[in-house]
Amino acid sequence: MKLSIHIFSILALVALYSCKNASSGNLNASNQVVTSGELPEDFNTFYQKFHQDSAYQMAHITWPLQGTKGLQVDSTTTGTQNTYWQPEEWRMMRLDLIESGDFIREMNPIGDMLVVERIRAKAVPFGIERRFAKQANNEWELIFYADIFEFK
C-alpha cells in the first residue's frame, strides 16, 4: 500500500510539474518522440485534433474502450486488471501534459491501419499505452488504453 501511494505521489508530482511548465501547445525542445517507422499520412492531423477538441475525442473512441488499469498487487509488485473504460469516467487527454519534456513518447506504426503509442515518465519506469486504429470509414479511433503500468 505504501509503495502504491509513493508511486502515485511521484506520478502526481510529475503531472503537476508538467501542467505548470507546459508550453502553449508547442513541442518543448526536451520532449522526446521515438518513432519506429513512418506514421500514416493522415495520422498526425487526427492526433492533433484528438487532443484539442473534447467532442472530437469522445467521438473518436471505440466505446466501451478496451484496456487495462494499473493496480498494486503487494508492496513490491504492480499488476494490471483488464477493464472497459466508459464515457462517463473518461477525462480528456491533452498534449500539453505530455509535451513538457518529462516524458518519452514511442510511436510504433503497424502498417497504415494501426499506431501503438507508449508514453513513459523519464523519472520513473511507469507510463501508459494507447492504440489507435483506422476504421472502415477511414476515421482514426482510440481502440485501447492502458493506464499507468510498469515498463519492463
Radius of gyration: 16 Å
Tally of individual domains: 1
| Fraction of residues in helix | 10-25%
Q: From the coordinates shown, what is the CATH architecture?
A: Roll
- Please write the CATH class name: Alpha Beta
Outline type = globular
Summarize the entry for a quick read:
By secondary structure, this protein is α/β, with parallel strands linked by helices.
What does this 3D model show about the protein?
- With 152 residues, the protein is an alpha/beta fold.
- Strands 1-4-5-6-7-2-3 form a 7-stranded mixed beta sheet.
- It is 24% helix and 39% strand.
- The protein is globular and about 45 Å long.
- Residues 1-30 have low confidence and may be disordered.
- A hairpin with a 5-residue loop joins strand 6 (126-134) and strand 7 (140-150).
What is the strand and helix layout of this fold?
Layout: H1 2-21, E1 32-35, H2 43-52, H3 54-59, E2 61-72, E3 78-85, E4 103-110, E5 114-121, E6 126-134, E7 140-150
